[in-house]
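Let us work through a complete example step by step.
Step 1: write down the sequence.
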Amino acid sequence: MASLELAQAAVQLRESLGLPIVGFDLAGQENGYPAENHIAAYQYAHKNFVKKTVHAGEAYGPESIFQAITDLHADRIGHGYHLLSRERLDREDNKDQYIRKLSEYIADKRITVEVCLTSNLQTNPELARLEDHAFAEMRRLRLSTTFCTDNRTVSNTDVTSEILKAVDLFDLSLNDLKHILVYGFKRSFFPGTYLDKRKYVRGVIDFYQAVEDEMIG
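Step 2: predict the structure and record it as tokens.
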């Protein structure tokens, strides 16, 4: 009930006061706090054209991500680390097919995965080296990904550090890096109209290109 009231309040403040509320997010511990507890809140946000993020696939497997995109209509997935983790599936049959269909759906719908390298290294004991992060396979599958910190203070990182780690460890080309960063802006939640957002993203692309030209020549 609390999350539903929060969603209702967010919509009311946006509509009555014009506050630039751009999204609704569910974050925190997954174990013991299933996303399905917040279906009513997310249904309300969805019906009132509020963009939605759900932290899923950090501690739990692909089914938690499935729940986020079906029951909660997530536009972005926080973490999504275990999206491709076959061993994390509760089901016994057709595991490979399930993961393939889930990842292809996310790719086709351009649901963006917020990759949190440092945070995942700190919270996932089975991840001993960042080189083994699922981001490498996400890139191969052409999923929409962007870099996030999860929590700057807890993880003691920032976006620049996350980008540098990705460049160093995953052999990102200049084109790869540009595509990932620009797509993060394309899939961002924006307070203005769609046309305003297109203009904003165009400015980001032009600025990025100017910096690249200056630094590389």
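Step 3: interpret the result. The longest strand covers residues 51-56.
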